[in-house]
Prior knowledge:
222 residues; alpha/beta; Ribose 5-phosphate Isomerase B, Chain: A
Amino acid sequence: xNSRAIRVRIVCEGQTEVNFVETCLEPHLRQHQVxxxxxxxxxxxxxxxxxxxxxxxxxxxxxxxxDSTDRISTLVDFYGFQDRxxxxxxxxxxxxxxxxxxxxxxxxxxxxxLPYVQMHEFEGLLFTDVDKFHWVMDAWDESKxxxxxxxxxxxxxxxxxxxxxxxxxxxxxxxIFGAAYSxxxxxxxxxEDIGLPAIRAQCPQFDAWVSKLEAWGNESDx
Length: 222
């Protein structure tokens, strides 16, 4: 075990992901000597403002944070990439690495950067246990539960829920709950109630990412 904890900055797409890192990931990773803090991606103006993600904007933010922490990772949605085009999740993550290598030159160390793109959106993770949507109290009833179950049972795992820009996880939740569902309020509450072990058991890509973050706690200090 390290003599000190590894400091990890997680660059987040929006406030929902920031809240999730603070309430769910941070307490868990602290047990592995990994201290994580979220950082909301910067707007071109320099202000911290989420959304409108593309490779350049993400790389700009990582470069800005690079010297202020030990390690850097990301938590951004695949669906939200404005310059996704036909690229896969793996291709987007590699594009981030390639541009970082070019921007940082000799300072770039691939061991300390872990780009992670969540399939297809953060909201997909919440389908791990649809009963936890009871937090959307103003709209929760059995018909909503059955609608959520039908979606979940149509896919092998929550990370596969998508099909089109009209049927991404967040769009499906909007169709079921309307304005009663608040992404920033209910998303982190639902995730915390589900718990990381259950989410990791059903979401293999997310689980692999968390495992890599845990492993940083067992490596030598930067």
